[in-house]
Amino acid sequence: MKILRLFKNSQVFKIALAVAILVVCYLATEFYSQMKKLDSTVELIANSNETQLELEKLLSVISIYETSLRSYIITKDETYIENRFLSRGKIEEAIKKLKTLTTNNSIRNKDIDSLKNLIDYRFKLFRQTLIIAKSKSKSENLNRLELNAKLLESSEVTDKMKSFVNKIIFSESIKAKSQNNNHQFELQDSIITAFLLVILSLLILLLSFQKMNVDIDELQKANDKLKLLNESYNSAEKTAGFGHWMVNTETNQYTFSDNLYRLMGVEPNVFEPNIENTIKYIHPDDLDYVTKVHLDSLLNHQPTSMIFRFLTPNGDVKYIMGVGSFTTNSNGDLIKIGVNYDITNQYQKTLELENNNKELKYINTELEAFNNIVSHDLQEPLRKIQMFISRLEEKELDLLSGQGKEYFLKIRASANKMQTLLIDLVDYSRTIKGDKVFVETDLNKILEETLQDLSTNIEEKKAEIQVGNLPTIKAIPFQIKQLFINLISNSLKYSKEDSIPEIKITSGKITEKEQRDYKIANKEDYYKIVITDNGIGFKQEYSEKIFLLFKRLNTDPKYSGTGLGLAICHRVVDNHKGFIKVIGKPDIGAKFYIFIPKGDLL
Amino acid sequence: MITHQDSMHILLADDDEDDRTFFNEALQELKMNNKLTLFKDGKELMDYLEQPDIKLPHVLFLDLNMPGKTGIDCLKEIRANVRFKEVSIAIYSTSSSEKDIEDTFIEGANIYIKKPNDFSKLKEIIKEVVNMNWQFHTSGLNIETFFFSI
Q1: A299 and A352 both lie in a single domain
Q2: What ipTM was predicted for this assembly?
Q3: Which of A276, A367, A482, B97 is the most exposed place for a label (fewest CB within 10 A)?
Q4: With bands split at pLDDT 50, 70 and 90, how would you rate the model's confidence at A600?
Q5: What is the distance in angstroms between the Cα of B62 and the nearest Cα belonging to chain A?
Q6: Which residues from A are below 8 Å from B94, CB to CB?
């Protein structure tokens, strides 16, 4: 595995290849020099063989000469010596050749020189012998004696010459033999070198082939992966509703993704990707802007971001968010890559939201106008009615019959009820309206003011109020006061007739049960204020309903109410990001729990 | 127009006829021997006040919501003129909106009265306001004491 990993490392592979090639080069030069050496050995052997041959020739020429001479002496036939000058020429030729063959060997060269001297001397003897054999002046005996002496000398010189030549031939043959031995060794070395060379070359070839195989395999795998990635990217583009494009700023060559074509409302690759073909699909109103931004960016290489519209062939308008940025490819060319994102849905939703918002604002102003009507314009005639009622009551009541008096009192009660209703409505609308300014508010102080405001009512009911120590919180003071007023008046209103109303306002810690029931993450995050009474109470099943607008549990006319009081409380606590809960028990009383988050949660 | 030495001169500018009647009746029932002059809008009031030879009133009851020249307009004009600096101004309005209360306080009114819905209450208010020690009231005036409550 490790080897395979090393193998995959192209750096390591390159180094190995370089070393192998160096070794091959070394072996090749070695092989070449061996061959060269082999060549010279062969030459040397050939030289030696030729030298031997020439020497043999020399000897044979001399022998022929001797034989001819002898034959002449015996037969006195002139034809035997006719060719002697020819033979002499052959010898000269042989000597000359031997000289050239032995130019590289000075000792041998000298040997040849001395051989030449011997041959010259021998020929001198030939000539002298021939002269003696030819002379007829001397006596035959003397002549014979002289001839014999010359022939003897000739024979000695010839022997000397033969032995000299044989010596040379022998030494040459030894030399040739040793050369031949060397030649054997060198040939063996060359074979080994050649074998190594072949093996190594094969190894390199094999390695390269293997490496190539591995690379191709890897490439194939990478290619497959890329293909898969491309496919998933394409499908992602389709699902997410975006398309991308690229332009090489050097070659001005554009590339569009499949889904970019789809964004333009056409099938992928139906036209050559370039500006000219694309502008047909850009909304005419946006065209100038889009082309300007794009072409400017190609000059200043700044990233772009714009919103424009595509106009598809079937007339659909698509809102597109286009962003572009620059990068360089492996050739070092500057490439602009752009992503176009179909934001038609978002755009339409935003548009819808804006419309809704406008409508809401309009409704709000209407509501405010309505609120003004309620709080001012409706109160004005009501106040008049009440004024006249008070005038009647003071001056004319006695003049009415019993029935008339009863009617009158009902009119007065109805007018008063309407007044409270109007006041509650104004209070409720004040909790909805904006400008909620949160300030540090001492709840003890707010409660004190509340009790002051309700003092007449409290005295009337002879209620006992217990107040615990309350925290200072971030709140909208007038709303908190409204909350206290409503809750305490609620307790006073629904008190039991036969016992003294007792109302307790305290603050406390959040219990484990409350934390669980109301899903409070951290007990320390909330203030808890509890308002307890001993009034008529209610069934726990109504505990959510009583906070709803205009919901009244008690329809008994002695408990007058508008159905707004607790809705206002709910609203106020809501405005403070808190929540209000109530636990009611019929004939025992009600317990209101107010949870208001501390500082950071507001 | 006979003006008694000890009697106070009271003005009321209100476009609502019923309210003028209630006010007049209440003052009469109180038997306070005060002189009351009524105006049915802001213009009539200002025309009267701009006469150079009149005796200045002690208290002016000023309705806010009047056609033409509103109560606030009158208030601004009066407070812009040093001649009227001794005149106490009581705003007398159906509205009890914080905006109206604040605006009139800033413009220099002395007290803000929300029109009552009970005649006996009206009598009480008039009695209190007419007999008020203005110097004492004005010296400690703030937005809380500015809004009159019984």
Answers
A1: no
A2: 0.85
A3: A276
A4: low
A5: 16
A6: 376, 379-380, 383
Per the structure, how many domains does chain A have? 4
d(CA B145, CA A470): 27
Cβ contacts of B98 on chain A, cutoff 8 Å? none
The string over A561-590, giving b where at least 16 C-beta atoms fall within 10 Å of a residue's C-beta and e elsewhere, is bbebbbbbbbbbbebbebbbbbebeeeebb
**DSSP conformation class of B66:** -
Please check whether residues A174 and A142 belong to one and the same domain.
Answer: yes
Domain boundary among A342, A375, A402: A342
Q: Which of A568, A564, A592 is nearest to A580 (CA)?
A: A592
B94:A419 CB<8 A: no
Residues A93 and A35 in one domain: yes
Interface test with A, best of B24, B113, B118 (most A CBs within 10 A): B118
User: Are residues A52 and A199 located together in one domain of the fold?
Assistant: yes
Q: How many helices (H) and strands (E) does chain A have?
A: 17, 12
Residue A234 lies inside a defined structural domain of this protein: no
User: Do A152 and A95 share a structural domain?
Assistant: yes
Its domain, for residue A357, covers 348-433
Q: Give the position of tokens 């993704």.
A: A257
| A375 min Cα distance to partner chain B (Å) | 8
Supply A86's token pair: 């020819």
Specify whether A441 is located in the same domain as A424: no
Whether residue A376 and residue B115 make contact (CB cut-off 8 A), yes or no, is no
Above 50 in pLDDT, residue A311?
yes
For residue A595, what are the β-bridge partners? A528, A579
Q: CATH number of the domain at A520, please.
A: 3.30.565.10
Residue A503 lies in a domain: yes
Residues A141 and A269 in one domain: no
- Within a domain: residue A304? yes
Q: Which residue reads 């707004």 in tokens?
A: A564
How close B94 gets to chain A, by Cα (Å)? 7
Q: Are residues A441 and A336 in the same domain?
A: no
Measure A323 CA to nearest chain B CA, in Å.
Answer: 51
pTM above 0.90, yes or no: no
What is the per-residue pLDDT for B3?
40
Choose among A375, A376, A419: nearest Cβ to B117: A419
What is the distance between the alpha carbons of residues A298 and A291, in angstroms, rounded to a whole number? 11
Instruction: Say yes or no: B120 contacts chain A, CB-CB below 8 A.
Output: yes
Confirm if B5 and B29 have CB atoms less than 8 A apart.
no
- Reported as a single tens digit per residue, the pLDDT across A492-543 is 988 888 889 999 999 988 888 888 888 888 878 889 999 999 988 888 888 8
